[in-house]
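User: quick one, fold this
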Amino acid sequence: MDVETLVNVFIIAVFPLFVASLVLYVVRLIKGPTIPDMILAVDCISYDLSLFMALLAIYFRSSFLIVGAISLALWAYALDLYAAKWMEGRELGE
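Assistant:
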């Protein structure tokens, strides 16, 4: 069994779970009681999409999707840093 077939089977098997988790993350994003819950939902959505883009890049043999996946993951990390700095300043009273 080659890598392409394994990735294809994995994508088909994981796609329903991916969609279900995406729906739950969006519900948490909209309904989240606190700002950290909403930030965590955005992080989870971003990292899940990055992983899915990486799997699609392997399947389609496209390096452009890898660049997009890495960029999305870095933007999510930058959001984490910005939100942490904002929350730290908010707690300290700045």
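User: anything notable?
Assistant: The chain has three helices and no strands.
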